[in-house]
Amino acid sequence: MQRKRITKRVWIVLALLLTAVTLSACSTGDSDQTADDGAAVYHKISAKDAKAAMDSEENIVILDVREQYEFDAGHIPDATLLPLGDISAKAAQILPDKDQKILVYCRSGSRARTAANTLVRMGYTQIYDLGGIINWPYDVVK
Questions:
Q1: DSSP states of 42-89 as a string?
Q2: Residue 41: pLDDT over 50
Q3: C-alpha to C-alpha distance for 80 and 28, rounded to whole angstroms
Q4: Most buried residue, 21, 30, 45, 84, by most Cβ within 10 Å?
Q5: What is the pLDDT of residues 93-137, one digit of tens each?
Q6: Model-level pTM?
Q7: H or E stretch including 33?
Q8: How far is CA 140 from CA 10, 16, 131, 133, in A?
Q9: How far is 79 from 44, CA to CA, in rounded Å?
């Protein structure tokens, strides 16, 4: 009976540790994402900082990487739609300036992260991952 109780406690402790490690790995802090060689890949940007950039900078692209129906349901003002599945084929047409500041967002952040990595691999230099529109506290166009 004593051995069974210890084993159960060990499993509980292991489960709690695994949960803590998993949650820390899923953190969405605003730090830059870096490649193994230390080179900047893309930057995380908060909604507050993104809004400030949108209000103060003229040559900025707000890139929505969701699907058309999601965009139609509501998007950040002045956003350009380029669904994630079309980035490789259409980015050069829609985003000709590879040094232009681009703020990328989707619904929850997953597609934005993937899009940011794809754009960087394509040679874009100023990519900012805004995350998901579900965390956007400002105006949305419907």
A1: EEE--HHHHHHHHHH-SSEEEEE-S-HHHHHH-B-TT-EE--GGGHHH
A2: yes
A3: 24
A4: 45
A5: 999 999 999 999 999 999 999 999 999 999 999 999 999 999 999
A6: 0.74
A7: strand 33-34
A8: 49, 39, 15, 9
A9: 18
Q: Hey, what amino acid is at 130?
A: L
Per-residue tokens: 91: 């980015």
Q: Which two tokens stand for residue 20?
A: 């803590």
- Rounded CA-CA distance 44/34 in Å is 11
CB 128 within 8 A of CB 104: yes
Tokens representing 48? 């507050």
How many angstroms separate the CA atoms of 64 and 134, rounded?
13
- The structure tokens listed for 101 are 């500041």
